[in-house]
Amino acid sequence: MRHFLSISDCSAEELNDLLAESISLKKLYKTGGRDVCLGGKVLAMVFEKPSLRTRISFQVAMSDLGGSSIFIRPEDIGGIGKREPIKDMARVLSRYVDGIMARTFEHNTVVELARFATVPVINALTELSHPCQAMADMLTIKEHLGQLEGVKIAYVGDGNNVARSLAFAAAKLDMKLVVASPKGYELDWGTVEKTNSIKAESVSITNDPIKAVAGADVVYTDTWVSMGQENEKQKRIKDFEGFQVNDDLLKSAPPGVKIMHCLPAYRGCEITDEAVESPDSIIFDQSENRLHFQRALVKKLMSPTA
Ligand code: CP
Ligand code: NVA
Question: pLDDT at residue 304 above 80?
Answer without folding.
Answer: no
